[in-house]
Amino acid sequence: MPPNQPGPPLPHEREYARHSNAWPFAEARALEKRIGDTVPGKGYVLFETGYGPSGLPHIGTFGEVARTSMVRHAYSVLSDIPTRLFAFSDDMDGLRKAPDNVPNKEMLEQHLGIPLTAIPDPFGTHESFGAHNNARLRSFLDSFGFEYEFQSSTECYKSGRFDQALLAVLKHYDRVINVILPSLGPERRATYSPFLPVCEKTGRVLQVPVIERDVDAGTIVYEDEDGAKVEVPVTGGHCKLQWKVDWAMRWAALGVDYEMSGKDLIDSVKLSGKICRVLGASPPVGFTYELFLDENGEKISKSRGNGLAVEDWLKYAPPESLSLFMYQKPKAAKRLFFDIIPRYVDDYLAHLERYPGQEESKRLDNPAWHIHRGYPPYEDAHLSYNVLLNLASVCHSEDKAVLWHYISRYRPDATPETAPILDALAGYAVNYYRDFIKPLKKYRKADEGDKKALEDLATTLEALPAGADAATIQTEVYEVGKRHDYADLKAWFRALYEILLGQEQGPRMGSFIALYGMGETIGLIRRAVAGEDLGS
RNA sequence: GGGCGCGUAGUUCAGUGGUAGAACAACGGACUUUUAAUCCGUGUGUCGCAGGUUCGAUCCCUGCCGCGCCUACCA
Description:
Elements: H1 13-17, H2 23-35, E1 45-51, H3 59-78, E2 83-89, H4 105-109, H5 129-143, E3 149-152, H6 153-159, H7 163-171, H8 173-180, H9 186-191, E4 195-197, E5 210-214, E6 219-223, E7 229-233, E8 239-241, H10 243-254, E9 258-262, H11 266-278, E10 285-289, H12 310-316, H13 319-327, H14 341-354, H15 360-363, H16 367-371, H17 385-394, H18 400-410, H19 420-437, H20 448-463, H21 470-483, H22 489-501, H23 509-516, H24 518-529
Parallel strand pairs: 1-2, 1-9, 2-3, 9-10
Antiparallel strand pairs: 4-8, 5-6, 6-7
The protein binds one RNA strand through helix 10, helix 11, helix 14, helix 17 and helix 21.
């Protein structure tokens, strides 16, 4: 989240942080135990998040960075040792299959197996496909104001930054593969190599057997796809490492101290941890978060498209509400679908509202503290999001200003200037109305009886003095209804809602007309009388 | 086979080692010459089951039952 205006300082933060039950503090304390009191040799404590750039950033990417940032901030309360966060992109991975949601799929399919950073950008805007997706990742993360440092796998390999660790893998080759082999089936076991040479002829990342290795020279000999024996250095980007070894080597080379990952990677974390130790380093403190489920409790899969996109959430709710979702119970498999959004918005508002009145020790357990990096804004939201959603659907308007007329009735003390959060929520509510309520509206055509009554209503309204109040209008609407042929007044009002607003229920007509505008209402009525389709 | 999570009010879910909470739904009432909204009020829930630790467990530990997910080829 973007930085807020600082609230009052919390003088005893560190003391309370030692005892807070909030999970980011529990994590930070585990990390503190690993680090101790002395600054690590590299000069900082390193957090890492991973990103596979064959796809675009998604809600899980957001979750991992948001949660890691929360732990990082919690740690910074406990310790004065500087921290850094690497957003690491596995952009040297060979392309496994062309994604469906990108152009030039045919072109991509000709580059299967080639590192993402060596494939032309199908969008034509960057120097490679990997670079394009890396840029998308960065602008995605930047849009939330995350503090991080981008790191490219390709760069690390090619620049020699990984060389020492790569040579260590070569040196401990047997011990490394002995960690991996027991986890493999017999067929794969026969051909497995932690080194995946990048073929000089085809550019592809090869999965081929390694025949010889020369620790002193730092090279391996492999059998190429055409049967030729080729010797290459393991350093300098000539070889990439197979996934689990890659992760371990990276931990060792960069000195990663903390990295979280999804439940699906539990076994990988274990194996990579062992390999990391073989390489002489200790694996980072880890945290396993649960995967998200869809509305029906089924797993979210990109191919089925049953997930919820970040953009969908942000269209209807502030980013802080999504942060709250990520904060709450990271170890529980939560259902992630559209209907939960309003509740998270209102929960977020409740936490925000509760914050200023809380004792300092309790404030560190308040999600708002973690979402806002220790400085939640002091602001009264005045109204819940659910009330605003109701208001938006009832007042029949895509105009935030009209919504504000209604809001002023409830909270005369609030204006868009003094209540920016409320103002933003009104905007989200309007989006919600436009996308979910409005399409469901079904306008009934006025029949002859309706038309007579409606025309009567229009003339009656015209006769009213300018600035007539809601009660006066309400009385007139009521009187018009009595003059016409409706079973009861309930039927008259329902007719108004169905014909004018496209819904079975609606606001009190007097208030509605006063706020919607006398002229506008008369116009609306005349259009209905003329038989126009108000739904268009 | 290995691993993880969940099981709290009709529903969706919070929650904490010390009388159990919210939202929605439901019900009752107020107000409004309609409805909705709004306002007030209403919950005796075996906190999955059984043990254990504790002065005290919904919360910690163990076992069990139910549901679900991940993983075993690739990253």
